[in-house]
Design a protein that fits this description.
54% of the residues lie in helices and 0% in strands. By secondary structure, it is mostly helical.
Length: 157
């Protein structure tokens, strides 16, 4: 879910940064060098001229989450074998040794939530610096933003 938050943030700010690219989002982001969510980040970073340190946290956590998301979303089988001692009348854990157990831990979940928020806020601050003329979307913290906005007047008759 943390990775989906990251994807949603890119899809929130992307059209404000370059509406033309997001107008035909599926087509535009379906080919290299701007393919998928990584491509969206690359496009946004190029458009607003910001750098992301891809070789360390928090970005590395995003890459780990992308792998987990792909593992879960695409449901490819994983072959493995192991020996297990099981007491009579008990069943062995048929998922022992799967990567999912290494990927999904309390520590990884805590780190993911922290790193996703840190990374999104990093982007948000940089976007705000570059797009200060857009007075609605880029105010405040990215993940503590109002869920709705309205404009207009209160003319009573």
């Amino acid at each position: 879910m943390a990775y989906f938050t990251y994807e949603a943030y890119l899809n929130l700010v992307g059209p404000r940064i370059d509406g033309a690219a997001w107008k035909n989002e599926r087509d535009f982001f379906s080919k290299r060098p701007y393919q998928g969510t990584r491509g969206k980040l690359k496009w946004i970073c190029e458009k607003i001229e910001i750098e992301v340190e891809r070789g360390k946290r928090p970005y590395q956590t995003i890459e780990e989450l992308r792998k987990l998301r792909d593992f879960l979303a695409h449901g490819k089988s994983e072959a493995y074998a192991y020996d297990a001692e099981v007491e009579e009348g008990q069943e062995p854990d048929m998922f022992d040794g799967l990567n999912i157990y290494k990927m999904v831990t309390r520590e990884n979940a805590d780190r993911a939530l922290k790193d996703i928020e840190e990374f999104i806020e990093y982007l948000h601050v940089r976007i705000t610096e570059k797009r200060s003329e857009d007075g609605t979307l880029f105010k405040g913290k990215a993940l503590h933003f109002p869920l709705a906005m309205a404009s207009g007047s209160t003319k009573r008759t």
